[in-house]
């Protein structure tokens, strides 16, 4: 049976050789050069956000290409390096907040139809990978996948900040049974912060259910 698996794996590699999602370099899905191009941990300022927001990369160049490959082109193996980078950011966030090592990661919501098209909620995959990284170090980290965006919300690509906020009012919703409880510090995680509208709507929706989000952390963020 192992022989057949090896043969199958070899055929996949032959027909679809690995290429870096950021620069196309052969032999890896995410090379060290593109990993370095993400940038470093930084504060992100958006007027609509009432909690501190951070990112571990800039949404540009190879970082943007890699994230789109992960999000839209089905390259889910990128959850491993991206989740590792998100875990690095979470360590920094915990230090900023004085939160210790007990975190609850809440993935930013997506529309159900978009999640199905993409093969599942991609931000949840990132959060789980980051949680696994930190848990392996002895942290107490859990993921509460409790948010979703109603189907009545339009695709926000290309919308101005004010339009995005109007589009999401009342449409970011909480699954009551999945609401986190306990002493863990809640951090909303996302793939990219643009206007901050999605994160702001998520923070408000969670607050209405008694969950205080202490910070937002995204893999990337636009310039502003």
From TrEMBL:
Transmembrane segments: none annotated. It comes from the Bacteria. SUPFAM superfamilies: PRTase-like. This is ComF family protein. It comes from Saccharopolyspora montiporae.
